[in-house]
Amino acid sequence: MREVAPTRSAAIELVDERKLMRQGYEFLDEKRTLLAAEILRQLKLYQEHADALAAATKAAAAALAAALERHGLDDLQAYPAPPSPELPGTSRSLFLGLAMLSPSEPAQFVAQSPAAVDPSPEAKACRAAFEKLIGLAAKTGVCAGNLNRLAREYRRTERRAQALEKVLLPEVEDAIKRVDEQLDTMDREEVIRTRWSNRMNS
Fold first, then answer.
1. How many Cβ atoms sit within 10 Å of the Cβ of residue 100?
2. What is the model's pTM?
3. What is the H or E stretch that residue 11 is in?
């Protein structure tokens, strides 16, 4: 419970403080709404990328099985590995002060790998399937990072809004009520003293 001296200036300060707190709560409440909407948008995007990644993973597993059947494990292990891809790029933007990343297209493989001794369509398809996974995994990872940042900011905003709504604003309201009651009591006492003084002097 806040202890405030029952003065007119204290009452005015408390009213001003309550006004600022209400404005802060309205801002945090609006921020919560915007963050929730962006979380839903990013969640939908993440689900799309995750579904595509899951489908590509199944396709890569099937391509690997076909390549193993064609070459066997020993020959497939000796198949020339593709060159390292260029890292997927990202573009950065701000949303309510938060850094949000947008993935680029999947990495482009421009370098040529050494020629295989026993090339086959199955081995080429297997390589292409696993190369595709890199770009899809990057997109999914970027969306997951955005969701983590948004969720962390939402929790922080929620805690602040709840503190204002459930703790600070009720404390100020209670302090204003007590100060007003004390001031009213003091005013009534002053009126009684004035009347008593007038009677004694008359």
1. 18
2. 0.73
3. helix 8-77
**8-201 CATH:** 1.10.287.3240
Burial code of 159-196, b = ≥16 C-beta within 10 A, e = fewer?
ebbeebeeebbeebeebbebbeebeeeeeeeeeeeeee
| pLDDT tens-digit series, residues 126-165 | 888 888 888 888 889 999 999 999 999 999 999 999 999 9
pLDDT tens digits, 7-49: 888 888 889 999 999 999 999 999 999 999 999 999 999 999 9
- The residue ranges of every structural domain in the chain are 8-201
Phi/psi at 79 (nearest 5 deg)? -65, 135
Own/partner long-range contacts of 180-183 (Cβ < 8 Å, ≥24 apart): 180/11, 182/6, 183/6, 183/7, 183/8, 183/11
